[in-house]
Amino acid sequence: GNSVTQMEGPVTLSEEAFLTINCTYTATGYPSLFWYVQYPGEGLQLLLKATKADDKGSNKGFEATYRKETTSFHLEKGSVQVSDSAVYFCALSDEVGNEKLTFGTGTRLTIIP
Amino acid sequence: NAGVTQTPKFRILKIGQSMTLQCAQDMNHNYMYWYRQDPGMGLKLIYYSVGAGITDKGEVPNGYNVSRSTTEDFPLRLELAAPSQTSVYFCASSSYRNTEAFFGQGTRLTVV
Prior knowledge:
The complex is a heterodimer.
Chain A: E1 3-6, E2 11-14, E3 19-21, E4 23-26, E5 32-38, E6 44-50, E7 56-59, E8 62-65, E9 75-77, E10 86-93, E11 101-103, E12 107-112
Parallel strand pairs in A: 2-12
Antiparallel strand pairs in A: 1-4, 3-9, 5-6, 5-10, 7-8, 8-9, 10-11, 10-12
Chain B: E1 4-7, E2 10-13, E3 19-25, E4 31-37, E5 43-51, E6 54-57, E7 64-66, E8 76-78, E9 87-94, E10 102-103, E11 107-111
């Protein structure tokens, strides 16, 4: 079956540091890949997505590249801000026979000034 | 823009009580989902629906029931609440399975 493995958290960084959150996946077909963000007390919001190999999703300074050869979709940001503190979820949606999103366990990110 | 609306936001239930978590979306999405999020954990799919009149079980359906009589509404029913059902419940919808899912703000349920 499908699965998503995310970097264990929590992650604590200083403001303006470089961020990487690792995500790898297992899927039967050719999935679409997503990063969702959950701010305290809120539901999940889509941060970025990529629908095919070598696509790069980007939003709010965050980027992730769909790497089929390594089955990865790592999230990066060059200079984090305190407002980026949240929980980040990697997810996939498989086009083959699967009607749902499969989520990773989430990575809690805290940015300190 | 309402998006996905969940009610209530908070609820405390006693063991053995029943309740319905409401979810409504105004985006004419075919796909709707119920997830639960336990502290420090990811999201686990309880039930999903690919259209009115069609529902199917997810990873953790035991203790829950759903119905989908309209495109807009997807209520989740807890028949006999147990402490293990203490969690935050999220409803979500999407137009198709490979497209963005929109989430409600969640219902925090405590069973005591």
